[in-house]
Amino acid sequence: MSLxxxxxxxxxxxxxxxxxxxxxxxxxxxxxxxxxxxxDPFVLVTPxxxxxxxxxxxKQVIKFLNQERNRxxxxxxxxxxxxxFGAEYCKAADIIAAKCRVPRLYRFELMGTDEDLRIVDQxxxxxxxQQSQSAK
Length: 136
Fold this sequence. Notes:
Layout: E1 2-5, H1 12-20, E2 24-26, E3 42-47, H2 59-65, H3 68-73, E4 74-81, H4 91-100, E5 104-109, H5 114-134
Parallel strand pairs: 1-2, 1-3, 3-4, 4-5
């Protein structure tokens, strides 16, 4: 079980995922590129775009999740965002969690803090253990 994530050119989400040190694959930066095939159950990590104007979920993430096989393998979502967006903070993760009927596991601001990393790392261990036990 792995992480799949999208990170824009700002690379905030990329830096966070890299610091986790877990098996992770990055979605292509541009929508014209071929998207990934998840292959195995995964947790998605995604930033939020657009604020109140809509378009919160990055197009690259939409393209990836529009593949039925990928969508069937998502087990949870972690959101990154900017608290300056107010109520729209990490909205992409909430939208994906609702549409894919999976839990929003966590959310963090920009590239996250050391505390965010610790909580996410421990939380993923617990989550994957629960997923493994429920699959038996």
